[in-house]
């Protein structure tokens, strides 16, 4: 005779299956891509902040030092008439309390030593000025690359989340690439090739829209925060700038702003996390997981890929990363180039400081 436990086992099994089914359905709708979005969010904020651009002028301490040496040399070599003339013009910060150097014994040797000191001070100031200009230019070039990674243009665009300019007619081509569509920008089917997905990874903004917004127009929330998907034609293509703007504004409300400038340390860490996020959810695909290992975000069917259908809202990088001639993810390459340029500048700056020491 069956025990009470044995009698209830079929019922418990049905309940477990029902619960798993509910959880799976929920997973296909809400928050599936939140972790991936959080990584891209941090990278976006750093691109918007940019590296700190130093002034193209040497430090004030260098100018002060050079001026004091020039003043000492002038007081040691000027005539009385020159002293009075420069006192009137306030050149070198001369005041009535300053006194000319007496012409005593050893004067000639002292002047030679002061002249050498002045020569090296001027040389140091010139090097400092040149380094400051170079540093400023290199920072600007690095930031141009961050701008391009974000929105496809080296120009710094407004970062106002409430009035995003990325989706204006004048900026759409840079944001999404030529002839934007869900397939070209989000990667399409798991078996797609590069020729059909040439805009994949073109900008951070494009990838975020594929990951969080471009989907079935039925209220899915793959990146949480109450932000729902919209028909892909209204967000990826040029159908409705207002729809794309509203979606971006809502999405950025759950993307904390960076309080400081970008740093190579933070960017490098976030890029590493991004790389590890590609294919992170491949094991959840019910079929063709070999395709899904190139996806950013959740896809229930690896063969269907990232088509903006329900449970297929993602970015398929397979067309870029595989094939006879693999390509790099464009926005990722731009940031890597910016990091390399900034690190080269920092290393050169350090070498210069050590040589002066």
UniProtKB/TrEMBL annotation:
Coiled coil: 125-156
Localisation per UniProt entry: Cell membrane
Membrane topology recorded in Swiss-Prot or TrEMBL: Lipid-anchor; GPI-anchor
InterPro entries: Trypano_VSG_B_N_dom
Pfam families documented for this protein: VSG_B
Signal sequence region: 1-27
Biological role stated in the UniProt entry: VSG forms a coat on the surface of the parasite. The trypanosome evades the immune response of the host by expressing a series of antigenically distinct VSGs from an estimated 1000 VSG genes.
Protein name as it appears in the record: Variant surface glycoprotein 1549
Organism: Trypanosoma brucei
Lineage, highest ranks first: Eukaryota, Discoba, Euglenozoa, Kinetoplastea, Metakinetoplastina
């Amino acid at each position: 005779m069956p025990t009470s436990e044995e009698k209830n086992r079929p019922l418990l099994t049905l309940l477990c299956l029902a619960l798993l089914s509910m959880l799976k359905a929920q997973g296909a709708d809400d928050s599936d891509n939140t972790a991936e979005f959080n990584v891209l969010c941090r990278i976006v904020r750093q691109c918007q902040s940019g590296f700190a651009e130093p002034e193209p002028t040497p430090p004030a301490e260098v100018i002060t030092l050079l001026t004091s040496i020039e003043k000492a040399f002038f007081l040691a070599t000027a005539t009385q008439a020159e002293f009075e003339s420069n006192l009137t013009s306030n050149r070198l910060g001369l005041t009535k309390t300053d006194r000319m150097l007496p012409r005593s014994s050893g004067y000639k040797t002292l002047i030679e030593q002061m002249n050498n000191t002045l020569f090296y001070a001027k040389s140091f100031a010139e090097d400092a000025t040149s380094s400051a200009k170079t540093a400023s230019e290199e920072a600007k070039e690095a930031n141009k690359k961050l701008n391009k990674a974000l929105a496809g243009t080296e120009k710094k665009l407004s970062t106002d989340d409430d009035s995003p300019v990325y989706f204006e007619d004048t900026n759409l081509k840079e944001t999404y690439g030529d002839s934007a569509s869900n397939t070209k920008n989000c990667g399409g089917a798991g078996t797609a090739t590069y020729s059909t997905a040439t805009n994949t990874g073109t900008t951070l903004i494009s990838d975020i829209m594929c990951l969080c917004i471009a989907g079935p127009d039925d209220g899915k929330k793959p990146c949480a925060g109450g932000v729902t998907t919209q028909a892909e034609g209204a967000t990826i293509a040029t159908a409705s700038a207002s729809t794309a703007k509203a979606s971006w504004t809502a999405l950025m409300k759950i993307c904390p702003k960076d309080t400081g400038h970008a740093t190579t340390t933070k960017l490098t860490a976030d890029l590493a996390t991004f790389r590890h996020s590609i294919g992170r959810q491949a094991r959840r695909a019910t079929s063709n997981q070999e395709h899904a290992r190139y996806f950013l975000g959740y896809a229930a069917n690896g063969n269907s890929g990232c088509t903006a259908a329900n449970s297929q809202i993602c970015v398929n990088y397979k067309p870029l990363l595989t094939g006879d001639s693999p390509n790099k993810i464009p926005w990722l390459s731009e940031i890597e180039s910016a990091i390399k340029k900034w690190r080269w500048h920092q290393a050169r700056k350090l070498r210069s400081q050590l040589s002066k020491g």
